[in-house]
Amino acid sequence: MSAPACLPAWGHTWVDLPVLRLPMPGAELIPCADGCFRTRFAIHTPDDPVELAVHRWFLGHHGAFLVWKFLADSLDRLIHEPDSQLVRRAALGYDAYSVMLAYSGSCSREVYEDVIRPMMMAFDPAFSGRWARDYEPLPALLRRARAALGPVAAEPLSVASKANLVAHMEVMRKLVPDGPSLLRESGRARMETTDAERARFDEFFLVSRENVCVSRYHAHRAAVLSAIGHDLAKHPLSPACGETLRTFTTHL
Questions:
Q1: Cα–chain center distance at 43
Q2: Which domain holds residue 194?
Q3: For residue 95, is it within any domain?
Q4: Could you tell me the sign of the dihedral formed by the alpha carbons of 194, 221, 35, 19, in that order?
Q5: The dihedral of CA 137, 140, 143, 149: what is its sign?
Q6: Number of structural domains, the chain?
Q7: How far apart are alpha carbons 235 and 231 in whole angstroms?
Q8: 113 found inside a domain
Q9: Does a structural domain hold residue 75?
Q10: Which of 24, 41, 65, 140 has its CA 20 to 30 A from that of 133?
Q11: What digits encode the pLDDT tens for the residues 159-202?
């Protein structure tokens, strides 16, 4: 049985992805009920270049949502169990997030300016990545994990997290080299993020907040990572992206 698909029309194209069902940050996945079965998720990669760019923007963000959950869980565990193996696991999470940034932001500047940015602006004139509720706790968790480890033990994590910031800046410089963000243009940059804005971010990226059982979550995560992996194999961004994603998948 396939997951329900959310197919909002965005001008000339369609976003054809299963809704990503996630618990709220900090909430646990629920146990599977008796007779629970593994849901099958179909994710198809479009051939049209513009549709592919939009597909990657949304699917890459689905990957980011999943990596953010992985990072939150890994960093929280690391704070309470400082361990070199857990350090490498959390560092791998930041490497995987860098892949998601490169993948979702792999479109040309022209496609971003003409198609993707107007989508977000039409949805909300102040639309911002600051509204991502799953990312919000990560900086504080990272600081606490590094403090618990000390600078020497935390070095792999520090290197990976700093490389992730560089990856984020590279995407920003590529797609928005001169202009301000939508949030700054709206005049709302100094305002605190509201729950309504967090919900808007979820809604735009086809994310539903609800109780999710372990098998359903794992099945959807596997489908997202597999779809991105197959796309990268067919249309490589760099050898490192595909290899990092494969390594990350084997550590889940």
A1: 16
A2: 46-250
A3: yes
A4: positive
A5: negative
A6: 1
A7: 6
A8: yes
A9: yes
A10: 41
A11: 999 999 999 999 999 998 876 666 566 666 667 999 999 999 99
